[in-house]
Amino acid sequence: MARTENSGRERILARIRSGLLTPVVAHTPDLSSGSARPMVFAPIPDALERFQRECAENNTECIVTPDAKGSAEIVAGVLAALPVGEIFVQDAPELRRLAQAWSPSRAIRWSNEGAPAETSQATITLAECLVAQTGSIFVSSKCGGRGASVVAPVHIVVANVGQLVPDLETAFARLRERGTASHNSFVCLITGSSRTSDIEKILVLGAHGPCRLVTVLALHSANESGGGPAKA
Amino acid sequence: MSTASREFLRNAAEKSADLVHRQIIRRAIDHYNQAVERRRARFLDWQEARRRCQEIKREAVIHLDRYLLEFERRVQERGGQVFWAETSEDARQYITDLASRRGVRTIVKSKSMVTEEIHLTPALEKLGLRVYETDLGEFIVQLRNEPPYHIVTPAMHLTRAQVASLFREKLGDVISDDPQYLVGVARRELRHAFFSAEMGITGANFLVADSGMIAITTNEGNGRLCTTLPRIHVAVAGIEKIIPRLENLALLWPVLATAGTGQPVTCYNTLIGGPRKTDEVDGPEEFHMVLLDNGRSELLADREQREVLHCIRCGSCLNACPVFRTVGGHTYGTTYPGPIGSVLTPHLRGLNEFQHMSYASSLCGACTDVCPVKIELHHHLLQNRRNAVNDAKRPLVERATFKLWRWAMLNAGIYALSGWFARAAMRIVHAVRIEGTPLDPMRLWTKYHALPSVPAKSFREIWRKNRGAN
């Protein structure tokens, strides 16, 4: 375990403890107790519909496909339109399978070979989960590393509807259940492509990160034998 | 009157008369207001969201020692180093020493107000290091060699033409003032810095106690690159940034984005816990967390103003403040401008020198109404005024005037006589046309405002007459 000893630590803690002994004057009533609290957000009845609507609003391209095969074709189509150059792909069995459908001429750097190069044309990763409430994607270090979702001009996320949760609260519960935060040094909620409004409040996409975020969402996950759509 | 106060008054007079500046700010804030209104409508109950955020921050602050120690332990378990800085000087020293020891030459920074507070960049530049601000707004104001104008929108005061002209002067060939093009110029310029920097420095919007992770909220992706590419990551944050649980972010992220920029959530909400793990593809080899006190722990002992430590630095009180909109961010001359800056700065830098900031408010309460963690900002401004009168020296003339005023207010006859004199004086000033001239005793007011005509009768006379009629 790393440690840094410094003399200020004890003095700061002593000041905090002594400060906390002071009783404070509350200007607003404390409403933390009491029975039923009002809801903050409206419930989300249809997660897929909401996810698609939010993606449209935040400039994420969301393409729904019937299954993994359909997703492979969509990814191949997106890649075909990109300039010549290497792409970076998370080293995962699902993506290894999908890669067989892509153009053999496209050089692939897999995440087990190292971080994405500065010149990568696109990165392709999986996601931890998708959040309908905000049209967002949760990724972690396991999804090809920290740079995989930010270095290239195009980030393609391959996911399935089974990964879709209705809201952020459920997403955090899922991350907790899976130990995502403790197993990774990096977790990120991505909502749309990189942007800035720093000049006259005018929205410009692709500031330092990707100009395009493409989510390819299969209705059936690769593990399913072709039954009903995965439950969101 | 303190030097800071004199400068504030001079700059405020200049900026409030600058109509172009006022138009730029009005346009930006109108745009922001529309976005916020739309995003607030996404909440079923915005007031309940504010109450819950207030409770999260209150819980964090009333157990600050416990949560900080938990956070420290978790960061260390993740292989990170934690440094507790009592003062700005301690924090600067730690980071400059680290940069020297590790042979750092280039540093990329993502937007962080706390690094502005501790004046970190000049200290690093003094060592001969190249420091790049990588948030577009920060990059622009760095090129202009000026501090951020606003805590969320650092270049709010500039037009695209000014940015284009700046880039042309500092970066070479710039052929358009189209924002898309200008963003491309900055992206290309900073790309090389990201890939060559040995150290990335960030702030943190939240320090999550139960997971030992810091949460960084950005839109551009520069914060992500600063925490991915360099081999050392240094995060600096005030001790009050702590929150108890990771799940708290399910509410704090949307509330911060709604209040800060009028977005449902920002583009990148990143959680960083220590350096890269051995089985991870990329990320820094070292992670250093600098926890800054710099006067915050003393604020805990303030029975009226402890809640100022709940602030999540969304900047919404700046946008709502009629004084900020008129005098602009640079006029304050402090790291934190606007209502929150006016409340906080006297605590961080001394009430005597910065007492004037408590008066840079109409006490309209708009700041309190918009604060997403329900800080009673305008009450605290009033308390600072009271404290300034009790603790710090006020000018003799002011003290004498208020004594006289009090005496008159407690004596009906004297009050009536004073009113008669005041009306007579105003009529004379009006009749001899000296309004606004150096001879006018009310010049400070009449220089910029037209006085209404003085009514023929006082309220008392009208009251007496009407009561007699009834």
Structural notes for this entry:
The complex is a heterodimer of chains A (232) and B (470). Chain A is of the alpha/beta class and 232 residues long. Helix content of chain A is 25%, strand content 21%. Chain A contains six helices and twelve strands. Chain A is globular, with a radius of gyration of 22 Å. With 470 residues, chain B is α/β, with parallel strands linked by helices. Chain B has three domains: 1-41 and 314-394, no CATH class; 46-160 and 190-294, Rossmann fold, CATH 3.40.50.10420; 404-469, no CATH class. Chain B is built from 23 helices and ten strands. Chain B has a six-stranded parallel sheet, sandwiched between helices. The chains are: A alpha/beta (232), B alpha/beta (470). At the A-B interface, helix 1, helix 5, strand 9 and strand 10 of A face helix 2, helix 3, helix 4, strand 1 and helix 8 of B.
Briefly say what this structure is.
The complex is a heterodimer of chains A (232) and B (470). Chain A is α/β, with parallel strands linked by helices and 232 residues long. Chain A has six helices and twelve strands.
Keyphrases for this structure?
heterodimer, A: 232 residues, alpha/beta, Rossmann fold, 6-stranded parallel sheet, 4-stranded mixed sheet, 6 helices, disordered C terminus, B: 470 residues, 10 strands, 10% strand, globular
Mean pLDDT of chain B: 94
Terminal-residue CA separation of chain A: 40 Å
CATH architecture of the largest domain in chain B: 3-Layer(aba) Sandwich
DSSP strand count of chain A: 12
Q: Note the total helix count of chain A.
A: 6
Approximately how much helix is present in the residues of chain B? Answer: 40-55%
Radius of gyration of CA atoms of chain A, rounded to a whole number = 22 Å
- The parts of chain B where pLDDT drops under 50 for at least 5 residues are none
Q: Can you tell me the CATH superfamily of chain A? A: NagB/RpiA/CoA transferase-like
Highest CATH level, the class of chain A = Alpha Beta
Total of DSSP H or I helical runs spanning 4+ residues of chain B: 23
